[in-house]
Amino acid sequence: MAPSELPVRHIARALVFDPADRLLLIAYESVRPIDPDKPGDRTFWFMPGGGLEAGESHVEGCRRELSEEIGVDGAEIGPEVATCDGPFHLFTTARDARERYFLVRLPDDRIDTSRLAETEDNPVLGTRWWTLAELAESRERIEPAGLAGLAARLVAGDIPPAPVTLSWRDA
User: Fold this and answer.
1) CATH class given for the domain over 3-165
2) Is this prediction's pTM over 0.85?
3) Where are the domains of the chain?
4) Which uninterrupted H or E stretch holds 135?
5) In this predicted model, which residue has the larger pLDDT, 43 or 70?
6) Half-sphere exposure of residue 107, counting CA atoms within 13 Å on the CB side?
7) Distance between CA atoms of 105 and 14, rounded to whole angstroms?
8) Is the dihedral of CA 31, 37, 38, 40 positive or negative?
C-alpha cells in the first residue's frame, strides 16, 4: 500500500523515565521480519502510547495511554520533545503515523502492565527499563531511530526548545 493510501493515525507516546534515568520500552512482535539477516526475529521495542480518541488532545491521549498500558495514573505530562511522522509497517495495521512524544518522569519504577496486552493489536512480549548505555549499545530494533540520543539529551537536562524530528528505521 502506498503511503498516501495508508490510514492516518494521530498518536501520543511518552518517554517514561524512572528516578535512575532508565527509559521504559515495550517489546512487540512485528507482523514481518525486521532484519533480513535474522529472518526469525520479529521483536521491536517502542514507547508506551497509542492512538488518540475522538476529541482528545495529545496530552489527554498520553495520560490515558499511560493509565491503560502501564497502570500509571496522574503522571505529570511534560513537554512535547519529539515528533515522528510517516508510514509505519511493523504493527498489524500499517499506518501513516503522526506521533507526538512527551517527557514523563515517574517517582519510582513501579508499573502495572496487566492491561497492556488487551489494548494492543500486536503481541506484547514484555517491558523493560533501559539504561542510557544499554540504549546506545543495543543491537535490538528500537523505534524510532534517534531515540537513544534523545533520551540521553533529556536525562542531561537538555530539553529541546521545539520538538525534534525522529524517523522510522525502515522509512
Assistant:
1) alpha beta
2) yes
3) 3-165
4) helix 132-137
5) 70
6) 5
7) 9
8) positive
